C-alpha cells in the first residue's frame, strides 16, 4: 500500500516535470507552426508512457539502488572496515589502502551508466544517424568505461586532496590532443556524451560516495572536497568515446575492410 | 498492435539486460566484501522490477513521442526559415526545462548555505534564499543561451571543437579568479542541468535541424548541443561567484 502510494506520488511529480515541456511543445506547434501536431494521439500516448515510465523508474531507484548505494558507500569508507581490510588505522592509511573504494567507484560508475536512460536515447539516435556504423552497445560501453575510470580517479583525488582543476585542465588537454587526431565524425558525439552521462541514476550515487569519502578521510572537508566527482564523470567519457572512434579508425586502417576509411566506423 | 507489442517486449528484455550490471555489482560487493545482512529483500526485488518496468515504458514513450516531436518541430521551424523563432524555441526549451529541474533546486540551496558559511554573503535565510534563486536563474539562463549558441552554430556552421575548447580554456582561467567555495559547485552544475527528458528532445532538435538544412551532415552538425549545455553553466556560475 505504501509502495503504491509512493509510486503514484512519483508518477504525479514526473507528470509535473514533463507537463510544462509538453504544453510548450504543443503550444509552439499550434501558434508558431500554425498546424496541429501530426499524429497527435500517438504522441499523447507516448508522453503518457514517458511520464509513467519515469515515475516507476524513480520509485524503483528510491526503493532499491539509492539506499543500497548510500549504505555501501558508507560501509566502504567506514574506519572499522578500512582497519579490517588494510590492518591500519585511518590516520596511517596511504592512498592505496582504499582499494575497495576505487574498485567500487569504477564498478558502480560503469554499471549505473549502462542503465542511464538519456544515454540510451542518445545512442539510439547516433545509431540511426550514423547509418548503423556506431553501435548502440559499443557507444554505451565506451561511455560507461569513461564514467567508471573518472569516478575512480575522482575518489583518488578526494583521498589525496589534490586540487580539482589540475585534473580537469589535464583532462581537457588530453581531449584537445585527441580532437586533433580522432575521426571528425565522432567528435560532436563525444563532446555530448560528457553531459549525457550525469542524470538520473549516476549523480545521486556518485555524490553520496564523494561526500562519504570526504567525511571519512582525515583532513578533508565535505564542502570543499566532496563535490567534483560529477565533473570527473562528465570529462572522462569524452576521452573514452574519442578513443572509441580512434580505435575504430585504427582497426579500419589495419584491416582495411572498407575503402571510405575516414568515415566508416565499425563497432 | 501486434507489432508494437513485440517492440514493447523487446524493450523490456533490453531493460533487464541494462540493469544486470548494477545488480551484479551490488550483489558481488554485498556477498564478497561487505558481508553484512541486507534487510528487506522483498522490497528490493519489487523495487528492481519497478525500475525495469519504468525504463521499458520510458524508452517506449521516447520513440513514440519525444524523438518525433523534437525532430518534427525542428524541421517545421527550419522550413519556415525564421531564425528568430528557432532561436526563441531553443532558448525557451533550455531555460524552461532547467529552471524547474529538482536537482538544480537542491544544488542551488546547498550552494547558498555554503556561501553563507564561507562569509561571502550574510548568514540570514533571506540572503541565502536570494543567493540560491540568483544561482538557479544564472544556470537556467546559461542553458538557454547554450542551446541558442548551439543552434546558431548549426545554422552558421561554426567549428564545434574551437568553441568548446575555447570555452573550457575560459573556465580554467576563471577558476583562478573565482572564490574557491564556488568552484566545485560550478563544475558539478554542468552535470545536473541535462535531465532525462531534455536530453532526448535536444538531441532530436539538433539532428532534425541538421538533416533539414542543405549541406549539413547530421552526424557532424546535429550533435554538440548537449556539450554546450554542460559547458555554459560552469562558465556562468563561476562568473556569478566572482560578481556576487
Describe the structure.
The complex is a heterodimer of chains A (267) and B (244). Chain A is mainly alpha-helical and 267 residues long. Helix content of chain A is 76%, strand content 0%. Chain A contains 12 helices and no strands. The longest helix of chain A has 32 residues, at 2-33. The radius of gyration of chain A is 22 Å and the shape is globular. Chain B has 244 residues and is mostly helical. Chain B has helices spanning 2-34, 41-80, 83-99, 102-117, 125-156, 160-177, 180-192, 198-212, 218-222, 225-243. The longest helix of chain B is centred in the first third of the chain and has 40 residues, at 41-80. At the A-B interface, helix 1, helix 2, helix 3, helix 5 and helix 6 of A face helix 1, helix 2, helix 3, helix 4 and helix 6 of B.
Tally of DSSP helical segments of chain B: 10
* Number of continuous helical runs of chain A: 12
Low-confidence stretches of chain B: none
Computed over alpha carbons, the radius of gyration of chain B is 22 Å
Structural class of chain A: mainly alpha
What general form of chain B does the structure show?
flat
Portion of residues within helices of chain A: over 70%
Return the average pLDDT of chain A rounded to an integer.
81
Distance between the termini of chain A: 46 Å
First-to-last CA distance of chain B: 57 Å
Major beta sheet of chain A, specifics? none
- Helical amount of chain B: over 70%
Q: Approximately how much beta-strand content do the residues of chain A carry?
A: under 5%
Note the overall shape of chain A.
globular
| Biggest pleated-sheet summary of chain B | none
Strand segment tally of chain A:
0
β content of chain B, as a range? under 5%
Amino acid at each position: 500500500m505504501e509502495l503504491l502510494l509512493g509510486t503514484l506520488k512519483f508518477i504525479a511529480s514526473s507528470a509535473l516535470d514533463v507537463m510544462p515541456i509538453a504544453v510548450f511543445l504543443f503550444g509552439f506547434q499550434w501558434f508558431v507552426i500554425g498546424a496541429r501536431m501530426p499524429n497527435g494521439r500517438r504522441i499523447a500516448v507516448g508522453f503518457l508512457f514517458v511520464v509513467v515510465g519515469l515515475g516507476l523508474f524513480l520509485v524503483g531507484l528510491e526503493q532499491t539502488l539509492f539506499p543500497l548505494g548510500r549504505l555501501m558507500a558508507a560501509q566502504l569508507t567506514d574506519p572499522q572496515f578500512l582497519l579490517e581490510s588494510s590492518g591500519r588505522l585511518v590516520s596511517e592509511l596511504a592512498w592505496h589502502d582504499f582499494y575497495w573504494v576505487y574498485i567500487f567507484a569504477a564498478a558502480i560508475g560503469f554499471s549505473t551508466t549502462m542503465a542511464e536512460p538519456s544515454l540510451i536515447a542518445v545512442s539510439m539516435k547516433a545509431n540511426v544517424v550514423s547509418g548503423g556504423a556506431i553501435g548502440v552497445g559499443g557507444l554505451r560501453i565506451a561511455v560507461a568505461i569513461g564514467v567508471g575510470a573518472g569516478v575512480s580517479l575522482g575518489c583518488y583525488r578526494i583521498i589525496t586532496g589534490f586540487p580539482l582543476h589540475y585534473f580537469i585542465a589535464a583532462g581537457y588537454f588530453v581531449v584537445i590532443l585527441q580532437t586533433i587526431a580522432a575521426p571528425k565524425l565522432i567528435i560532436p558525439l563525444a563532446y555530448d556524451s560528457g553531459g549525457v552521462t550525469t542524470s538520473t541514476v549516476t549523480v545521486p550515487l556518485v555524490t553520496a560516495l564523494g561526500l562519504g569519502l570526504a567525511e571519512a578521510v582525515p583532513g578533508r572537508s565535505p564542502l570543499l572536497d566532496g563535490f567534483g566527482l560529477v565533473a570527473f564523470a562528465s570529462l572522462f567519457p569524452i576521452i573514452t568515446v574519442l578513443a572509441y572512434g580512434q580505435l575504430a579508425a585504427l582497426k579500419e586502417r589495419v584491416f582495411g575492410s572498407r575503402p571510405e576509411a575516414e568515415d566508416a566506423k565499425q563497432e | 498492435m501486434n507489432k508494437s507489442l513485440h517492440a514493447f517486449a523487446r524493450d523490456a528484455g533490453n531493460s533487464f539486460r541494462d540493469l544486470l550490471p548494477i545488480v551484479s555489482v551490488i550483489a558481488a560487493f554485498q556477498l564478497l566484501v561487505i558481508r553484512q545482512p541486507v534487510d528487506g529483500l522483498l522490497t528490493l526485488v519489487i523495487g528492481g522490477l519497478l525500475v525495469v518496468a519504468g525504463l521499458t515504458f520510458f524508452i517506449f514513450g521516447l520513440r513514440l513521442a519525444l524523438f518525433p516531436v523534437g525532430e518534427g518541430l525542428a524541421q517545421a521551424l527550419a522550413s519556415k526559415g525564421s531564425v528568430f523563432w528557432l532561436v526563441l524555441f531553443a532558448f525557451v526549451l533550455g531555460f524552461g526545462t532547467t529552471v524547474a529541474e529538482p536537482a538544480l533546486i537542491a544544488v542551488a540551496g546547498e550552494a547558498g548555505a555554503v556561501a553563507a558559511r564561507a562569509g561571502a554573503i550574510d548568514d540570514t535565510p533571506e540572503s541565502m534564499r536570494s543567493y540560491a534563486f540568483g544561482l538557479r536563474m544564472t544556470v537556467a539562463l546559461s542553458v538557454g543561451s547554450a542551446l541558442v549558441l548551439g543552434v546558431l552554430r548549426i545554422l552558421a556552421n561554426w567549428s564545434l571543437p574551437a568553441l568548446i575548447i575555447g570555452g573550457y580554456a575560459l573556465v580554467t582561467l576563471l577558476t583562478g579568479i573565482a572564490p574557491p567555495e564556488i568552484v566545485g559547485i560550478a563544475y558539478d552544475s554542468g552535470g545536473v542541468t541535462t535531465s532525462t527528458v531534455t536530453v532526448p528532445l535536444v538531441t532530436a532538435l539538433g539532428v532534425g535541424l541538421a538533416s533539414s538544412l542543405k549541406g549539413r551532415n547530421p552526424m557532424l552538425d546535429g550533435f554538440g548541443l548537449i556539450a554546450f549545455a554542460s559547458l555554459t553553466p560552469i562558465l556562468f556560475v563561476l562568473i556569478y561567484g566572482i560578481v556576487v
